[in-house]
Structure formats: C-alpha cells, structure tokens
Write a structure and sequence with these properties.
- The protein contains 17 helices and twelve strands.
- By secondary structure, it is an alpha/beta fold.
- The chain folds into three domains: 28-316, Aldolase class I (TIM Barrel, Alpha-Beta Barrel); 337-436, no CATH class; 442-552, Double Stranded RNA Binding Domain (2-Layer Sandwich).
- Strands 1-2-3-4-5-6-7-8 form an eight-stranded parallel barrel, surrounded by eight helices.
- Strand 10 and strand 11 (500-508) form a beta hairpin.
- Helix 13 packs across helix 15.
- It starts with 32 loop residues before the first strand and ends with a helix.
- It binds 3-methyl-2-oxobutanoic acid (KIV) and zinc ion (ZN).
- The site of zinc ion has 7 residues, from loops.
Length: 553
C-alpha cells in the first residue's frame, strides 16, 4: 500500500546552485554527436541478449542509419561480445568513418582483455566507468572519495599504457562517472579533472567525458543545471567532448537530453526506441526526429523507419509500442472525427515543396517512409471526414458535402453495430451498395424498382452542369409516369480515372430528399444512373418508414 505521506519516505532532489543559467535562453542549432549503445547498454538489458548474428544485423543497420560511433559491447564481461568485436575487425566490417567503442571497468586484467578484443581496429573508443555516487561509495563498495577517484585515475593510467603500446590504432578515451546525476557536483568534477589530468587530452586529440543519468532522479531542468555546471567548471574543457547518457526512469529522458544539449552537451548516448536498463536509455529515434521537425538535419536517416523497427524488434525481441513517437503503428492515425476532418483538409490544401503545416500531423509520414493509408481510420468515434478521405483514396472522387453527411450515417450504423474499425475497403463497398446498387432493378430485393413512367418534374435546370447533362436529366425524368420527382440538387465531378461522377438529390412528394450517385465514362449515362439511384433510394427509404410505422402501430 502507498504511504499516506510520501515525504516520510522520499526526499526531493536538491536543486543546483547555478547563477545566471544559460541553457534556458538557448536553442538547439545543430545535431549532437550520436553514440548508439544498443549493442552494449541496450543488449545488457535484454531478457535474451543478442547472439553474434543479431549483433551483426543490428550493427549493419546502425551503420546504414548513419551512426559514426557505436558501442559494440563489453568484451571483458562477455565471450559473445569479445567474439563479435573480433569478427568485426578480422572480417573488416567496420566502415572507415565509423568508430567502435568498448566498455571496461577499472581493473588491469579486464582492460588487457579489452585491448585484446580490439586489437587491429583502426579507431577505437575505450570507455572506462566506475560508480562514484554517495550511495555506491557507502552501500555498494564501502569506498572513500579518495579511493573512488583513485580507481578512476588508475584505470585511465592502465588504458593509457595499453594504448601507447599499440600505436597503429587511433585511440580515443572516454570516462563515465557512473551515477553522475546522483553525485555531488564538486566530486564529479574532482574525479573527471583527475582523470583528464592523467590522460592529458588536447584540443586536437580530445577525450570524451560522459555524464550518465544512470538512474534518472530529477526533473530535466535539474539535469541541465548539472550539465551546465560541469560545462562551466571542468578543467580541460576545450579538450573534452562533453557527452550525456540519460536513462528514462522518470519518463523524461528525451527532455533531459534536449535540455542537456542546451546546457553544453556535445554528444548523446542512447538506444533506438528507448531500449535499455529498466525504463530504457534515452530514445535516439525520438531525439533525432524531434530535431528533424525543427528543421535541423539530425545526421541520422530514418526514412525507412519500419525497416529499422523490424531489425530492432527482431534483435531485441521487444515490440515497439504502437504509440511510440514517430515509429508506432498508430502515431499517424486519427480516429476522432474532428481530427480526421482537419487532417483531410490539411492534406488536400497542401502545396508541394512548402513548409509542412497539416493539423494533427507534426511530421509528414512520408519522411519516415510511411504511406498516408493509416492516417485516417474509421470507427464509431469518426465523422464524415474520415469516411470521405477513405472514399477519395478508394474510389477516386470526393462526394459533395451533403452526400458525405448522408453517407456518414450509414457508416456510423455499421461502426456502432460492430464496435470495431471499418476498413477503407469496407467503406467503399458500403458506398457502392448504398448508391451504385440502387441504380438497377436488382438493387434491393425488397423494393419495387422505379419504372420510368413519370411526367411531372420540377427540374432546377440552373443547377445542371451543362447542356448534355440537362438533356439527360430531362430524358430520364420525362420517362417517369405518375411520380412527381423534384431534382433538388445536381453536382458532377471528374474521378481520378477521368470518368464522370454524378450526385443527384431527389424528392418525391413529401418524402425526404435522398441522393443518388453514379460514375460512368459517359456523362449522360452517369446522370441517368444517378437519378435512378436517387429515386430508388427515396422510394426505398419511404418503404422503410411505412414498414416501421406499421410495426409501431
Ligand atoms: O548508465 C550508465 O551509467 C552506464 C555507464 C556504463 C555509462 O551505462
Ligand atoms: Zn547506461
């Protein structure tokens, strides 16, 4: 049971004492350096870690997407990772512009094993970490601050020695003060400064200082303050690539990473779709696409997001959530009527090569390789806009507004009855049944179809599109005997295939107006069919009313 007063159990995370913070007034102007840790941090969090084949498939996909830094494993901790790294190197599978990264703890035998794994690679980032936060010093390692710092410095010294012995590789050194986000800032700086002092980076040969929110413990603004504080106070800053490594325990890793970039981070480590320990590492897809929608080239290519997603799902054996930003199955789909209406209008009015401005769609699905097919889906929550969009796509024409309204009642009935989605095909089939089948005598088994015998016609010739149509209407209506048909509305449009679609609204006597619709390559034929459709629908509706009155009586 939850405690009645959480303040008895939890303490608010302390604010950072930072005067004149700069990050709130900045904007992001370029993409950070990306580092994918899918094959290391992400892999360590999987129920079934990847085998070598899966790692290779994932690695090759990361390269295609455009990652230039990829943490490929923890070779001193896993034989699979060791063998995978060897395979990449021996089989020459690392492109010249890609640098692999390997993680290691501060112990000589582990560092030596790591150097064995990466032997022969042209460029390598060796990544050392040790936990430095108070709870780790006290609870996990029973170490003093001095011992904690000494461990980091000693690891750095050994790595420097191993690197110097292998001059054929371009070595880049990365240090992570693990649990940075929960550590006293002055101590984080003290450790990072001591490590840098041992490595001696230069502006031409920088080292990476990576600040992990190993467990996300505070609001993103607090993390941004911590990063800005380090940015301002660390020594060797011009010789350091400042990196961040957010996790998502509070669900705000993306925001934390974005504010951290404002605060001075040059580089971001994370995983695709937010895989990683517990709630995951920061999601690099969302981060990259967030930049893209602000007009900034992320330098990562997600134009085949479904292809990327398939590889990730296969290798991680974890599905991507249907609501995942940018990549989920449902994220470009509107079911609600008002949303559909706005999207339909936005897409219809959109001019090619102009700034994207479609209501409810923050990004053009086509930029992620998605079609517009799923943009609008119809269920009982939908309105006429949704059905119309699907009709436009399926039948190649846009019915006039009043036909849309009339047809939406038929769709609503089907959606309410099934309680489920009504597919685009089903909507087109329903439209054909409602309007096209009503054109001929066989249209409704229970309806005596119109025989054209009438004479008394009230035809608003002014609404008839052209002379040919007027003649067709007159010819059809003139052949109807004993029925007074009022053609109350008449519209035509060209279909995508170049045929004529005709929409005719007819009244007979006191009965409510009904629309008839027909499509034909011959316009006159279409007019005739549409009138038959309308008249049959009026009479059929009249019958239904009489039948229901009889039942009620
Ligand atoms: O989350 C973390 O602190 C890590 C480090 C090894 C960088 O994954
Ligand atoms: Zn991590």
């Amino acid at each position: 049971m939850m405690m009645r007063n959480p303040s008895e159990k939890y303490r608010p995370f302390p604010q950072v004492n930072l005067n004149g913070r700069r990050w709130p007034t900045r904007t992001i102007e370029r993409a950070p350096i990306w580092m994918s840790t899918d094959l290391r941090d992400g892999n360590q969090a999987l129920i079934d870690p990847m085998n070598i084949e899966a790692k290779l498939e994932f690695f090759e996909m990361l390269v295609r997407v455009g990652f230039k830094e990829i943490e490929v494993g923890f070779p001193s901790a896993s034989q699979t990772d060791f063998d995978f790294v060897r395979k990449l190197i021996v089989e020459n599978r690392i492109p010249a512009d890609v640098t692999i990264e390997v993680l290691v703890q501060s112990r000589r035998e582990l560092i030596e094993r790591t150097f064995e794994a990466v032997e022969g690679a042209p460029r390598v980032i060796v990544h050392l970490y040790n936990a430095i936060a108070p709870s780790f010093r006290k609870i996990v390692f029973a170490q003093s601050k001095e011992e904690t710092k000494a461990l980091a410095v000693e690891g750095t010294r050994i790595i420097k020695e191993c690197a110097a012995a292998r001059p054929n590789t371009h070595w880049i050194y990365q240090y992570s003060p693990e649990t940075f986000s929960m550590t006293e800032l002055s101590f984080s700086r003290e450790v990072c400064d001591a490590v840098a002092q041992m490595w001696r980076p230069t502006p031409d040969h920088k080292m990476i200082v990576n600040l992990p929110a190993t467990v996300e413990a505070a609001m993103p603004n607090v993390f941004a303050d911590q990063v800005e504080w380090m940015d301002r106070n660390m020594s060797y800053r011009d010789s350091i690539v400042l990196s961040v490594h957010p996790h998502n325990d509070r669900g705000t890793a993306v925001a934390a990473a974005e504010l951290a970039i404002l605060a001075g981070a040059d580089r971001v480590e994370g995983c695709l779709f937010g895989n990683g320990e517990r709630t995951g590492n920061v999601d690099l897809v969302t981060l990259a696409m967030n930049l893209y929608t602000q007009g900034i080239d992320p330098g990562l290519d997600f134009s085949d997001i479904d292809g990327v997603r398939r590889v990730v799902e296969r290798c991680n054996q974890i599905p991507v959530h249907p609501r995942h930003p940018y990549a989920g199955d449902l994220v470009f789909t509107a079911f609600s009527g008002s949303h559909q209406d706005a999207i339909r209008k936005g897409l219809a009015q959109r001019e090619a090569d102009t700034v994207w401005d479609v209501p409810y769609l923050p990004i053009d699905p086509a930029d992620l390789g998605r079609s517009y097919d799923a943009v609008i889906r119809v269920n009982s929550q939908s309105g006429k806009g949704g059905a119309t969009f699907l009709l436009e796509r399926g039948l190649g024409f846009t019915p006039p507004r009043r036909v849309q309204i009339e047809f939406s009642h038929a769709v609503q009935k089907v959606a309410d009855a099934s309680g489920a989605e009504v597919s685009g095909e089903a909507i087109c089939a329903l439209f054909k049944r409602e309007y096209f089948d009503a054109q001929g005598p066989a249209s409704r088994a229970d309806v005596s179809t119109l025989h054209f015998e009438g004479r008394h016609v009230n035809l608003p010739v002014s609404t008839v599109a052209d002379e040919a149509h007027a003649q067709a209407v007159a010819a059809v209506v003139a052949s109807v005997a004993g029925v007074v048909i009022e053609v109350a509305s008449f519209e035509t449009t060209a279909t995508a295939k170049g045929e004529t679609a005709v929409f005719v609204g007819c009244r007979i006597g006191e009965q409510a107006m009904r629309f008839g619709v027909a499509v034909h390559a011959n316009a006159a034929h279409a007019v005739a069919d549409a009138i038959v459709s309308a008249v049959n629908r009026v009479r059929w509706a009249g019958r239904k009313e009489v039948e229901s009155e009889a039942v009620a009586a």
